[in-house]
Structures are given as C-alpha cells and as structure tokens.
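Structure tokens please, single chain.
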Amino acid sequence: MKRNFFYFAWRELTRSAYLRKNMAAKGVLIFLALYFSLVALAMGFNLSEHLSANFPDQSQISAFNSLIFIYVGFELVIRIMVQNLPTFGFQPFLIIPVKRKRIARYMLNKSLLHFFNFLPLFLLLPFTFRAAVHELETPVLFAWLGSLFLMIFVNHFLAIYIKWRTNESDWFFYGFLTVAASIFAIDYFEVFDITANFGKLFDLIVRNPIYVVVFPLAIIALYTLNNRYLLNRFYIDEISQKKKETKAYDFSWLNQVGEYGKMLSLEVKMIARNKRPRTSAIMSILFIFYGLIIYQDADVREIPEAIMAFGGMFMTGIFSMTYGQFFPAWHSRYYPFLMAQNVKMKQVLQSAFFLMAVTNIIFYLLSLGYMYLSPKVLYIHFAVMLYNIGVNSFVIFALGLNSRKSINLDERGMFNYQGMGATQWLIAFPIIFGPMAVYGLLSWTIGNIGAYIVLGSLGLIGIILHPRLIDYFTKEYLKRKHRMIAAYKKS
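Here you go.
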C-alpha cells in the first residue's frame, strides 16, 4: 500500500494544473536551492580556518558546538516560514479499508525528503573531513556526527508540528513569536547563555557518546506528537466542518471618511477577516524592529546615512510593499462581482491610496523611537515617508495594471508563492532600489541634505497631485478590467 501511496501521489502531482503554473516562482526556488547549496559547501570548506581565527583558545569541535544553537534556531524559523507541510489527497481513502495510521505514517515519512534535510550536509561533511576526523576518535566521531544528523530531523518534525498548530490557531502563532522573542532576548542580553549551554550538550556527547540517545528519543516523541495530530483530524466530518469561528468587525465609522469610505471599510475588513492579508499586516508591524538590527551600533560608530535612508524606506513603507505587491489581486476572488456593483474604480484606488498613506504615517511615528539612537531619524524617515506616499503608492498602482494572478486569501502569508507572478517578483526593484538609486545620485551631486529635500519634495508633489494621478489610473484600470477578470478566472 505504501508503494500505491507513492504512485497515487506521483499521479496527483503530474496531473495537477498547478504543475504548469507559476513556472517563474519554481525557477527562482530552484536557483535559490542551488545558490544556498553552493554557499553552504563553500562555508563548510572554509569553516575550519574561521573557527581557528575566531576561537584560538578552543578546539575546532568545541568552537563548532558552541555555534550549533544559532544555526538550529535560525533554521527552525526558516523551516516554519518556508517548508511546506506534508500533504496528500487522503480523503478518498477514508471510505475504504485503509488504516489511518498507515496514511499518517506515509505523510510524515514522505516529508523527510525535503531540501532542508539535505542542506546541512553541504556544510557539515566538508568540515568533518577537514577538521573533525583529525580531532575525534572513530567511535566518538560517529556519535558526534550522528547527533548532528539526528538534530536535523528533530528540527524537521518540530517545525512541522509548530507550523500545523500555528496554521490552525492564531493564538498559537502569537505564542510562538513570544517564546522565540523571549529566547532571543534572554540570550542576547546575557540573562542566560543559551547558546553556550546548548553547545555543551554536544561537548558532553564528545566526552561520553552514550548521550547521543537523547536525539532518537526526541525524534520519536515529536514523530508521535505529529502522528497523533494527524490521526485526530482524519475524519470526513472533521475535514468538511469549518471549525473556524467567524468574528464580526464593525468598521462602519470608516464610511464617514468620504465617498471612498465604503471601499476603505471593505479593504480593512478583508485584511482583518482573512489569514493571508492579516498575517502580512502583522508581520509588517514586527518589521518595525528591523531598526534594532541596522542601528544597533549607533553608540559605537556613526551610522551611514544611506543605511538610515534604506531603513526608513523599509520600515515606514513595509505595509505598502506587502499590501501593494498583490494589488488589486487581493480582491481577485470577487473582482467580477465588485466590478458589477455600484462601486467606482476611483473609489477602489482612493481607498488603497488612503490606506497606504495612513499606514506610512503610523509606521513613521513608531520609528521615531530610534531617535534615541540617532536624532537624524526624525528628518530622514520623514523624507522617505513622503516619498513612499507620494511616489511609491503610484508605482504600486502602475505595477498593479499587470496583475494576472488571483490570490487565495485563506492560505498562510509567510513565504507563500501562490499568486506570485513576474510583477510580484520585480516589485522590490522600483519600490526599494529605485528611490535608493535616486538618493545615491542626489547625495553624490548635491549632498545628503539636498537629497532628502528632493525626495521629500517629490513625495509632496505626488500627494498634492494625487487626485489627478488617481483619475489617470482609474482610466487605465477600466481599460484593463475585462482582461484582469479573465486572467483571475484562469489562475
């Protein structure tokens, strides 16, 4: 039956219409897989020299062990964001005499064939042959190497379980973010050295290889936990029943904003009620902490103003970027219905512009906390905020004219490539790198202050002329209305 499961899964894949869709996204993913494999391989061959230079008082194995927690934690977060959950069209098998345990085991076993389970080998094996074989005796080497291999699968099953639970419950998602942030803060502010103590577990295995048994036990526990999770949901009524409780949101007060208030209320409801736009909005709020990374050395050295301009562009405009990336495809599922209602295209564009403008202002006010690190944040972020509102908003509208991919609002938001077309992949260039290129040219010719004045002035001109610009884009969207509807129905 396992052979049949693999056969059915293969036929499901080859017959799926999705196989022939999103070829650009698949090409990018293949390129990234090859790129990161080569990077990991290069790091593996050069890791020995780096450890010797940075940890001269430790053996290379001990230095390597002290860094494992950083890699494991980073990989766990990336797995949760990127790694797909094991899926299989098991519903037809629930009405025939096939054990549910066998289906669950097949799904979990098949999930092991994932790129992230092979990527660490490109880093680990070169380091093993260049350094570990010279420091460890053969039995100890096998125990140490086995513990690292098994740690990969611990991370694998832990990521799957966390992702299943976070997809099912928003509260579990927020809880995971809280725990992850707490662990990072405890380690970063040296309340407790989690990194070093986690590395001591592998040092203990080097001294006494019998402790490698901890990892098979952890894998069995996580495998059982995932297996039970699946078995508790292998019922027809469990699948068909919509257990998600709908919440009522009252945004009627937005109708007082103006003639486009009705559409603005619809936009906000769409974000609040659906998983994918809601996740994008929440993650946009979290990106306000991006400044802690790029401004962290402000008390030691002066931060380059180009970095501050980039940080301001990113932090104040992150919601516009994530929201505008799929505009107007957010409404693709009901776009024909929307076009048939008494809602003018001008109202759609006005509401989107107003939403992006307000969020830019809110994120700018939140970013003013970084004035504690540098007072320049006040005027640099203000200039790029004006540019985001007055220029980037209309760049987003221009790119949205080529929107052809519909969006599934109920899917996860993080690293979800459904609905990704060439427009979505290329949007970062004019939105982020475009203004940075303008800033670089202006700062080189007229200086930094002059560059901020020009960027802010361009944004202010766009804000003043936004009624005329919206009228222009209204005509362009109406010209492409039927083509967009036809494309959304096909995708």
